[in-house]
Prior knowledge:
Layout: H1 22-32, E1 38-41, H2 51-63, E2 67-70, H3 80-113, E3 126-128, E4 135-137, H4 139-155, H5 158-167
Parallel strand pairs: 1-2
Antiparallel strand pairs: 3-4
Helix pairs in contact: 4-5
Amino acid sequence: MNGFLPAHYDxxxxxxxxxxxxxxxxxxxxxxxxxIDCVVVYKVDRLSRSLLDFAKIIEAFDELHVAFVSxxxxxxxxxxxxxxxxxxxxxxxxxxxxxxxxxxRDKIAAARRKGKWSGGMPLLGYDIGPRGSKLAINxxxxxxxxxxxxxxxxxxxxxxxxxxxxxxxxxxxx
Length: 174
């Protein structure tokens, strides 16, 4: 193929931890359609941070005779040694992704233990406090929460509780 495609396959805002990304899907479709014979990335982990997904992509590239080039890292897959080096790089990328995820979960859990609100819609029975960093009890909703728990203790099953809540027309607003 001569020349370059004018299109870029950027997935801004999407994590590289899986293949469920619009630009990657477009890229793979264009490769299967024979429109692409070389994929150039800035760093290897910009294509994928999952070792398994990356291995599948490289296998597909090999089958379709598509070259893969990383501008900043050695990424040649023509020999077993070069494939090993590439797999080591991807192993570290996947490790980094998992560590970041663990740290984020730990940070959110620590904030919650301190009573700080970490975002999202507050649970039934709570409102976001005046400064937005802590939850405040919503007395009206809290009484409903206690009633819901009491209903469950009486019914010993979830479905009758849900049916009773529907009968009472108790719905979360907002």
